[in-house]
């Protein structure tokens, strides 16, 4: 789990203090859930410190007059702005040499109606000299990055975050590897429209039509027409649905996708369990380093991620899709407080803080399972079994307790059975966390992208489904994200 960057110690008291600007914060000593509200207040202040732009105060994120719910077409470009070397530049935190833009475009909602959506583009310092498929001249290879769970309110859009949400875990690494990163926020995060959490089909539309919109932008001549999709967690599921969508309604130029730890929870299990091979390294015993830590207060650690906030986000999404659902019907009194707080913002970071150390039984009533089961089939139809538009590399870890290897493997096998022409490879890593697989899996997904753009078909996934266990060079690799950004 990531660590929050240090905040000036002199401000620490203010972080814990109740704030009149935040509704529902406790200022009453008799409040039974004062600790929840105070924890939320602290988390929201930390979240705001990592936010570049206030979405409600920004003119850019307002729906413009050139958008029409009846005549706008998916892929229409509505706005395009440069952030690098602009007055906004200092509000963002990204590596030197990269160029950052933001844009608004037209996508489709879950009912296939036009909606505004936003995103960012991050360009590398220069184009790779490697040849791209279909291009005789060197252009920057285009990758659509589909992000993992960020939250369910407008302020959760990655384009609003100082480090674009995934920083060195994803987008910076892609850009520094020579790819143009097109990062859709997903409609309803950033843009003023309904966001449907974990909705595979509309998020895939967000991804595909972001590529189309950038073809109409001032930087279009710098980028390849061809593109691939890479995503993690919720975004891994989106990368899967993008591949299916490009077989059903192609926008052109699609080369394949990489779902990393995909949260494809409607896949049908096949009761085949992956058995991890021996991953010992054969090295002799090496003396382990040990020294006392210095006295420092340079970091604010995020609590252990309980994952409970995912259920809150799912319930909120179900209620948006079905007006007859009252979320609080399925919540305990403590759950209601958390639900109301998360509806105000703060996103995953706030959810992680206020649910840390909790358990589902103290927050949700048993009946919630009936609602979330119906919701999941609404947002993720087909369970990953539709025809693919290109080759696909699944990347997952045995150590991921949030998205297991067996579910991803069952989805891959299921797709290959349903579609004899599918080309699916699955790289399985040992002992990496849900976030850690983004680092350990980088060599695999970069090699896939390199081969896809170079049209090295011999090195891309073969027809069918094939698993490869990736053995690390040592058995003592790090597993914790202990650095601060």
Automatic annotation (TrEMBL):
<feature type="signal peptide">
    <location>
        <begin position="1"/>
        <end position="21"/>
    </location>
</feature>
<dbReference type="GO" id="GO:0016042">
    <property type="term" value="P:lipid catabolic process"/>
</dbReference>
<dbReference type="InterPro" id="IPR005152">
    <property type="entry name" value="Lipase_secreted"/>
</dbReference>
<dbReference type="InterPro" id="IPR029058">
    <property type="entry name" value="AB_hydrolase_fold"/>
</dbReference>
<protein>
    <recommendedName>
        <fullName>Alpha/beta-hydrolase</fullName>
    </recommendedName>
</protein>
<keyword id="KW-0732">Signal</keyword>
<dbReference type="GO" id="GO:0004806">
    <property type="term" value="F:triacylglycerol lipase activity"/>
</dbReference>
């Amino acid at each position: 789990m990531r660590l929050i960057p240090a905040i000036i110690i002199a401000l620490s008291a203010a972080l814990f203090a109740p704030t009149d600007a935040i509704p529902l914060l406790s200022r009453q000593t008799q409040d039974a859930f004062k600790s929840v509200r105070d924890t939320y207040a602290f988390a929201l202040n930390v979240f705001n410190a990592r936010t570049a732009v206030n979405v409600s105060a920004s003119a850019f994120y307002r729906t413009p007059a050139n958008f029409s719910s009846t005549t706008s077409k998916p892929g229409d470009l509505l706005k395009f702005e440069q952030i690098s070397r602009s007055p906004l530049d200092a509000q963002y935190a990204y590596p030197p040499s990269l160029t950052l833009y933001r844009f608004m475009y037209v996508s489709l909602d879950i009912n296939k109606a036009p909606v505004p959506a936003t995103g960012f583009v991050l360009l590398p310092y220069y184009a790779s000299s490697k040849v791209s498929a279909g291009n005789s001249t060197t252009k920057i290879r285009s990758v659509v990055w589909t992000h993992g769970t960020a939250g369910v309110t407008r302020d959760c859009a990655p384009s609003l975050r100082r480090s674009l949400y995934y920083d060195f875990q994803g987008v910076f690494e892609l850009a520094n590897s020579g790819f143009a990163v097109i990062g859709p926020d997903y409609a309803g995060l950033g843009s003023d429209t309904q966001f449907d959490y974990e909705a595979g089909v509309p998020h895939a539309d967000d991804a595909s039509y972001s590529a189309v919109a950038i073809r109409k932008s001032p930087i279009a001549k710098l980028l390849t027409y061809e593109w691939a999709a890479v995503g993690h967690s919720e975004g891994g599921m989106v990368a899967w649905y993008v591949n299916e969508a490009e077989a059903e309604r192609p926008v052109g130029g699609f080369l394949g996708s990489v779902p990393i730890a995909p949260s494809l929870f409607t896949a049908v299990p096949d009761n085949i369990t992956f058995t991890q091979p021996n991953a010992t390294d054969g090295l002799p015993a090496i003396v382990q380093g040990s020294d006392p830590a210095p006295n420092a207060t340079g970091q604010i650690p995020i609590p252990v991620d309980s994952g409970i906030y995912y259920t809150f986000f799912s319930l909120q999404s179900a209620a948006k899709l079905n007006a007859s659902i009252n979320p609080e019907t399925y919540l305990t009194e403590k759950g209601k407080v958390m639900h109301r707080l998360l509806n105000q913002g703060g996103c995953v970071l706030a959810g992680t803080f206020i649910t840390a150390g909790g358990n589902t039984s103290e927050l949700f009533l048993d009946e919630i399972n009936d609602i979330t089961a119906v919701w999941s089939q609404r947002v993720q139809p087909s369970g990953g079994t539709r025809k693919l538009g290109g080759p696909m590399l699944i990347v997952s870890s045995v150590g991921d307790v949030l998205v297991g290897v067996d579910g991803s493997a069952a989805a891959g096998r299921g797709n290959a059975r349903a579609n004899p022409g599918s080309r699916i490879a699955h790289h399985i890593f040992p002992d990496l966390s849900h976030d850690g697989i983004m680092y350990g899996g980088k060599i695999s997904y970069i090699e896939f992208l390199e081969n896809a753009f170079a049209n090295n078909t011999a090195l891309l996934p073969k027809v069918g489904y094939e698993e490869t266990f990736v053995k690390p060079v040592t058995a003592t690799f790090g597993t914790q994200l202990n650095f601060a950004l």
